[in-house]
Design brief:
Strand order of the largest sheet of chain B: 1-4
Number of domains of chain B: 1
Number of helices of chain B: 14
Shape of chain B: globular
CATH architecture of chain A: Orthogonal Bundle
Distance between the termini of chain B: 14 Å
Number of helices of chain A: 11
Helix content of chain B: over 70%
CATH topology of chain A: ABC transporter involved in vitamin B12 uptake, BtuC
Largest interface: A-B, 40 and 40 residues
Order of helices and strands of chain B: HHHHHHEEEHHHHEHHHH
Oligomer: heterodimer
Number of domains of chain A: 1
Chain lengths: 308, 311
């Protein structure tokens, strides 16, 4: 393949990655924004979403569409309830103190990961995509006869990948509507702004926290359900989404949802493109160093405002 | 001699005697535990005494380990100068990390250390031809000799580990009772107030990072030389979490605590491995329970109840 078609392919792959990353990072950002808690177990909630999706799709049987739709609803719900329960039973008792919750979520990370290993096992399992037509993409070239269109070999995407992008956009808009337009969003923002005052106005802050933690985890699980027909469900799959979400949330400015979305698209796309043309390890090294430097020299993030 | 000094010297003597009493399997374990305890004591300097929570301490361990290991592998150095290179590399590296990371505080500091550590791990993988990446490499027995002593011999190895451990332990006893050590605790308790009293909190924190990183690096270099293996798994995230676990369990801000924590966790893992492969499950459960119910750790409770003099 020539450079042009290759680049188009890289951008398409980047777009799919960016979509899933946006959902996962939104969950992490929401939890950090509202609760001031860094959830190190976030990647494991992503992994649980994928594993539950496999479980649901497998136990229902029938047409792949039925199993997939069921997984799309059940897996995030289940993960959300589990995370909310973990918050209620563990993090609430730590008063959501930043340092102690970090240590506790590290513990949760290992517990979730190892229990999955003991029950689900060390093998990766796929989920059948509900639909998967190959869509060829035309490319043009200047020849003696003028502009000529043709379909280069290998330059294609699938209908399912386009669906992932669309679904992520819809879900992202949903989160924005929830935060900006609903009463629940108002409560969440009030808690984020000032926990004490919110409490004084009769907002049940502890319950809001549990809800936020569950909702954040459910977003990660949703991203995982979308990605699991492309990438198989495996008990160690939570590492990369966690690292990338961290990177995105920091670059976007801790706690800023708009910055998170912008950064997710930026990081997802560039990660996809760099991985196609260069070594993925090099891409990760550059990304982690970039994040460290952003935190050191611009702690409000690239898109965030300087605190007054 | 004060009670504190007597207690710690006594602990070292007990460990020396144990070598002649314990079966080979357990004295081998104990040698490993002592080296890992130096790693944990280094972690304790930052976390327990200065209040700086690092999530990337494996990078210091790895820099010491690879500093020594690579000078042997690539430049055919002898064990002693290679150990020196490992220490020097750790000092310079922790100084660089400290200068950058200490510009941040709180959660940002934790994530910066995590990211630096991840970058080191990925660099080790990226330079696979030099480091042999995940597989790692073996330091041959012929090189592991210092002044006529064979470090691969179990008895010599035990006493080499004990020597390193004793230096670190007594150094810590001296440090925490010195002026500098007290300033570190003051920074942990209330940095603003320490600064207002005229202490240079930045310089003290930088000192804590460099000392902590160097102790971790020394443990890494010693681990490579004593046990002969160097690998990327010593730079991975779980290996950064281990000293946090050891220190939390043993008692943050106590001199002997990191050793106690390492001893307990090592044998907890040893015992649990006989009925499950998922040994990290135990680590996870212990972490959650410790943060919820026992923030002071084992020696913290001992100090509170029975031995107020324990440093």
């Amino acid at each position: 393949m020539e450079f042009g078609p290759h680049l188009i392919l890289a951008i398409l792959e980047g777009l799919v990655q960016a979509s899933v990353l946006t959902l996962t990072a939104l969950g992490l950002s929401l939890v950090f924004g509202v609760m001031r808690v860094v959830n190190v177990a976030h990647g494991e909630f992503f992994m649980l979403g994928a594993v539950f999706a496999y479980g649901v799709a497998n136990s229902i049987g029938g047409a792949p569409v039925v199993g997939f739709v069921a997984a799309l609803i059940v897996a995030p719900l289940l993960v959300g309830v589990l995370a909310a329960a973990a918050d209620w039973l563990i993090l609430r008792r730590l008063d959501h103190d930043p340092e102690r919750t970090i240590v506790a979520t590290i513990g949760m990370l290992y517990v979730i990961q190892q229990i999955t290993l003991m029950t689900y096992g060390p093998d990766a399992h796929p989920v059948t995509p509900p639909f998967n037509q190959r869509i060829a993409i035309p490319w043009f070239e200047f020849t003696d006869k003028g502009l000529e269109f043709y379909f280069p070999w290998g330059l294609s995407t699938t209908s399912y990948k386009l669906f992932v992008v669309a679904a992520a956009i819809v879900a992202g808009l949903g989160v924005w509507l929830l935060m900006a337009r609903s009463r629940l969003g108002l409560i969440l923002r009030a808690t984020q702004l000032d926990r004490e005052t919110a409490l004084a106005f009769g907002i049940p802050v502890q319950r809001v926290y549990a809800l936020t933690f569950g909702f954040g985890a459910a977003l990660a699980a949703l991203g995982a359900v979308l990605v699991v027909p492309i990438q198989q469900a495996h008990y160690l799959m939570g590492g990369d989404p966690l690292l990338l979400s961290f990177i995105v949330v920091i670059i976007g400015g801790l706690g800023s949802l708009r910055g998170t979305v912008l950064a997710a698209i930026l990081i997802g796309m560039s990660n996809g493109i760099i991985s196609v043309f260069f070594s993925p390890t090099l891409a990760k090294i550059l990304a982690t160093l970039l994040v460290a430097m952003v935190l050191v020299y611009r702690p409000q993030g690239l898109f965030g405002k300087k605190p007054a | 001699m004060s009670r504190a000094l007597t207690f710690h010297i006594g602990a070292i003597i007990v460990l020396a005697v144990l070598q002649f009493i314990l079966p080979v399997y357990h004295s081998g374990n104990l040698a490993r535990i002592m080296v890992l305890a130096v790693y944990a004591m280094g972690y304790n300097v930052m976390f327990g005494y200065t209040g700086l929570l690092s999530l990337g301490h494996a990078m210091f361990f790895a820099v010491g380990m690879y500093g020594a290991g690579l000078s042997i592998r690539l430049f055919d150095m002898a064990a002693a100068p290679a150990f020196g290179i490992g220490i020097i590399a750790s000092i310079l590296f922790s100084l660089g990390v400290g200068l950058l990371a200490l510009r941040t505080i709180g959660v940002a500091f934790m994530i910066v250390t995590l990211m630096f550590s991840q970058a080191i791990y990925l660099l080790i993988l990226y330079f696979n031809p030099l480091t042999r990446g995940d597989e790692g490499f073996v330091i041959p027995q012929a090189v592991r000799q210092v002044a006529g002593f064979d470090l691969s011999d179990p008895t010599t190895r035990y006493f080499a580990a004990l020597l390193l451990f004793a230096i670190a332990l007594l150094g810590m006893v001296w440090l925490v009772r010195s002026r500098t050590g007290r300033v570190l605790v003051a920074i942990r308790e209330n940095e603003e107030r320490a600064r207002m009293l005229g202490y240079d909190s930045w310089a003290h924190k930088l000192f804590a990072v460099v000392l902590s990183g160097t102790m971790a690096g020394a443990a890494g270099a010693a681990y490579g030389l004593l046990f002969g293996s160097v690998g990327a798994s010593f730079a991975e995230v779980p290996f950064s979490i281990l000293p946090l676990l050891y220190v939390l369990l043993g008692g943050p801000g106590t001199v002997i605590g990191p050793f106690v924590g390492t001893l307990f966790m090592f044998y907890l893992r040893d015992i649990s491995s006989s009925f499950t492969d998922a040994h990290l499950l135990v680590a996870g459960i212990v972490l959650v329970l410790l943060t919820m119910y026992a923030r002071r750790g084992i020696m913290g409770v001992v100090r509170e109840r029975w031995a107020k003099w324990l440093p």
